[in-house]
């Protein structure tokens, strides 16, 4: 079996970083520290608490913010976008328009969307920005559709219109 790297495209997904159990424990830990600092004979216990919070919470915040990469990873059996993992065999329907692709899945009650406007580009001119976003969106859609068709026969509704040249 050949190990190959997944295709990846930069994409500013809308998945928020979830407040997980680690941060709940950290929050409770800091409430305890605040209670401890307020009982010290230190003249400004709140400043001491803020200093401790800045030293511990800020690095945790920065590391958690970067935990979810802003990319779409496309593999042969699945793709990953933010917190969402979709296997191609679980997809029931695909709807493609000029601005987005909607993917219906059996395991996910929400409709998963990939929007064209969320692909970043380094271009500065408006025409180049539009062209780059169109190219990236179309290449991602084509890769996903090709991989889905290899795995199963899913109804695909393509409502894209070809812009006049």
TrEMBL record:
<protein>
    <submittedName>
        <fullName>Uncharacterized protein</fullName>
    </submittedName>
</protein>
<feature type="transmembrane region" description="Helical">
    <location>
        <begin position="46"/>
        <end position="62"/>
    </location>
</feature>
<keyword id="KW-1133">Transmembrane helix</keyword>
<feature type="transmembrane region" description="Helical">
    <location>
        <begin position="21"/>
        <end position="40"/>
    </location>
</feature>
<keyword id="KW-0472">Membrane</keyword>
<keyword id="KW-0812">Transmembrane</keyword>
């Amino acid at each position: 079996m050949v190990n190959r790297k997944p295709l990846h495209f930069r994409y500013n997904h809308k998945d928020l970083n979830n407040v997980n159990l680690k941060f709940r424990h950290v929050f409770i830990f800091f409430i305890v520290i605040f209670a401890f600092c307020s009982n010290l004979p230190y003249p400004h216990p709140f400043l001491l608490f803020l200093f401790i919070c800045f030293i511990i919470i800020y690095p945790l915040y920065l590391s958690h913010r970067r935990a979810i990469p802003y990319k779409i990873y496309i593999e042969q059996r699945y793709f990953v976008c933010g917190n969402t993992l979709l296997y191609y065999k679980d997809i029931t329907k695909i709807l493609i328009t000029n601005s987005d692709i909607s993917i219906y899945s059996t395991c996910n009650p929400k409709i998963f969307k990939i929007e064209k406007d969320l692909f970043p580009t380094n271009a500065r001119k408006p025409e180049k920005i539009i062209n780059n976003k169109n190219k990236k969106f179309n290449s991602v859609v084509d890769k996903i559709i090709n991989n889905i068709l290899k795995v199963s026969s899913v109804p695909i509704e393509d409502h894209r219109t070809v812009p006049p040249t």
